[in-house]
Write a structure and sequence with these properties.
CATH class of the largest domain: Alpha Beta
Structural class: alpha+beta
Number of helices: 7
Helix content: 10-25%
Distance between the termini: 46 Å
CATH architecture of the largest domain: Roll
Number of domains: 2
Largest sheet: 6 strands, mixed
Shape: globular
CATH topology of the largest domain: C8orf32 fold
């Protein structure tokens, strides 16, 4: 499936701010099932953009707008060709639970087995698990267990924007029994890790299809979960829509939870209030794209760079140091 994605993020400030430093996780990944045809990043006001791969292998773009401005608009455009994952078996043997206990596997997946940020066990989660007898799912093989968990969470929570915030702990969705994709992903990750199954947060986009029963917002980014099973490696599950990850899912970044891979994150210097507006469009491409892969970063004038190119380590390090300094100085 060939998809075109447009993601616009706009920050407006009540009065001009002196400087903004931003990082974005908006470039779709390149993998066996996902070919990045093109990626274009436009900034207004213009700024010099650097890029680096973070500790999870995600492409991160960062920039500094050093002059006064009362708005900042980030427009990311992507073209991605996706393929369906191979069909999964009906089940695995129960020996998979023993394979998950391997010291090597646990060491390799340390980050995805331990609590972090929003994805952690709480008293409210333990109550929810007891209410739905979730630990009974472990009587089955791990693949069957996570599939059943995906379905259970879909039925237990209603999809409704505005009930939770981007920084809401999982207790908020557990109390309201309503939320959005990142809430459901955090709950599922916390449960899978409590079972000893490595689980990670996936940030990206979904080509929404109401015929498939999708209930997520077509004008927003999307999030789902990947779990690691030794016999299958990483497999994707979407508790928001009760589906495995399909060719309609476009992955941009993976991390321990939302805080590792937000679409955008930054700080500004100034005392002004800010407002954030986001718009996302994911649609099938009208015609096949045959141009070679490229990335294009724009800050007023167009400048193309080859796919996969990264800023020098020194430039990335200096910019990260500046981001840290501004976080300390933020007013």
């Amino acid at each position: 499936m060939l998809l075109e994605i447009r993601h616009v993020t706009q920050y407006r400030y009540a009065a001009p701010v002196r400087e903004s430093v931003m990082e974005v996780w908006m470039q779709p990944q390149k993998s066996a099932r996902q070919r990045l045809v093109s990626f274009d990043l436009d900034l207004d006001p213009p700024a010099q953009v650097f890029s680096y791969a973070d500790s999870f292998g995600n492409a991160v773009y960062h920039f500094d707008v050093p002059q006064p401005h009362d708005r900042l608009t980030i427009t990311a455009r992507s073209a991605v060709e996706t393929q369906a994952a191979p069909p999964l078996p009906e089940q695995l043997d129960r020996g998979e639970w023993d394979r998950l206990k391997s010291e090597f596997l646990r060491g390799e997946n340390f980050d995805y087995l331990n609590p972090h940020g929003f994805a952690r066990e709480t008293d409210a989660l333990h109550g929810f698990m007891a209410e739905h007898q979730i630990d009974q799912l472990r009587l089955r093989d791990p693949l069957s267990a996570v599939r059943q968990l995906n379905e259970l969470l879909y039925g237990a929570f209603g999809y409704e924007a505005g009930v939770t915030r981007a920084d809401s702990p999982i207790d908020d969705v557990l109390r309201a029994r309503k939320g959005v994709c990142q809430d459901f992903a955090h709950v599922m990750i916390a449960i899978c890790r409590s079972w000893g199954i490595p689980a990670r947060y996936v940030s990206g986009y979904l080509f929404t299809d109401r015929k498939h029963g999708d209930r997520s917002d077509p004008d927003a980014t999307h999030a789902w979960v990947e779990v690691f099973l030794p016999s299958l490696r990483w497999i994707g599950l979407d508790p928001t829509n009760n589906t495995p990850a399909t060719e309609r899912h476009v992955a941009c970044a993976v991390g321990r939870d939302y805080s590792d891979v937000p679409p955008s994150r930054g700080v500004y210097k100034g005392e002004s209030d800010s407002q954030l507006a986001v718009g996302v469009s994911v649609r099938k491409a009208r015609a096949a794209l045959s141009d070679p892969e490229f990335l294009r970063v724009s800050g007023g004038s167009k400048a193309s760079i080859p796919a996969g190119r990264r800023a020098t380590g020194n430039a990335a390090y200096q910019h990260q140091q500046r981001l840290h300094q501004m976080q300390q100085q933020q007013q």
